Amino acid sequence: MEEKRCAVVTGGNKGIGFEICRQLALTGIEVILTSRNESRGVEAVEKLKSSGLSNVIFHQLDITDSSSIARLAKFIETHFRKLDILINNAAESGIIIHEEEFRAGGGFVQLTDERAELLTNVIDEPYELGEQCLHINYYGTKAVTEALIPILQLSKSPRIVNVSSTGGDLIVQLTDERAELLTNVIDEPYELGEQCLHINYYGTKAVTEALIPILQLSKSPRIVNVSSTGGDLIVLNDEKMRHELQDIEKLTEERIDEIVQSFLKDFKNAKLKENGWPLTISAYKVSKIAVNAYTRLLARRFKSIIVNCVHPGYVVTDMTSQTGYITAEDGAKGPVMAALLPDDGPSGVFFNKTNIAPFFTTDWVLN
Fold first, then answer.
1. Which residue in the list 138, 201, 284, 314 is annotated as catalytic?
2. What pTM does this model have?
3. Please, are residues 201 and 318 in contact by the beta-carbon 8 Å criterion?
4. Which residue has the higher pLDDT, 111 or 261?
5. Please, are residues 312 and 335 in contact by the beta-carbon 8 Å criterion?
6. Could you confirm whether 284 is annotated as catalytic?
7. Of 200, 264, 278, 296, whose CB is crowded by the most CB atoms within 10 A?
8. pLDDT digits 0-9 by tens, 49-72
């Protein structure tokens, strides 16, 4: 009898994460839906069970809390012995959106660096939000991944998929009529930017590292990082840094961390423009650049684990204030496809939805 596969999805209580859980469960995989908020996570699982999916369970997870990550890893080891699929979906935007004005201006399509000087009083990206964004989107993802890699390595076909969102592939023509709509659209304080990085990068990294030992017990381990075309290296105006991040043979985790800390320092000191950083939704973009680079390093480091990052598309979710172009159901298709890749599938690549795309492009198209 074939052994059942087990998947962890971070940020699974709503939006793309919820749809990823649903679509994986439909294939018969045992799904552990995680979220920071316990009541919302339990509610999400009950919703899936009421639709006939009994193979989904909930476990609380704060990807910025090492003890929370450790509890998840212990739970998986105790109840499943191994982990086959890790999908890093949890993320924050690092901005405060003023809903009415944001929608009136067309959503994220208005937030380009070309318009940055016109966005005075349009967006406020304080340091605290930027730092928070990076801690979640990069460090959080990293922490979860590192924690679960030992369990993933027990799988026969381990998979890691890092998921993201749009944020940077947003070039549109600026018009005077459009500019008037940009007043008071979003705030981007430093505190949220810092939190964004702590969640999107450091949190992702921490979870990943914690779960890698369990992933290594799988026969087909997979790690999927939900990423973004906002992490396209074209958003960096520092050519030397761009080259460093492209040179995957020489790049190190220490250097990625140095780049993230350099960004936070410049963000806090209002030196983003002079040092070549993105000027709008900046912490989010840098967090996804870091996650993309980390994904490639993981693929190089763990040859037995298929590790990829996926941009799901511009999806109608709370993060986009319901201004996206595609549904969460369609947005989940790319991450799920990456999680179910065959053992000879690609590793260390970036998927734009379901198609392999470059980490550095010369033009952007919002899709």
1. 284
2. 0.87
3. no
4. 261
5. yes
6. yes
7. 200
8. 999 999 999 999 999 999 999 999
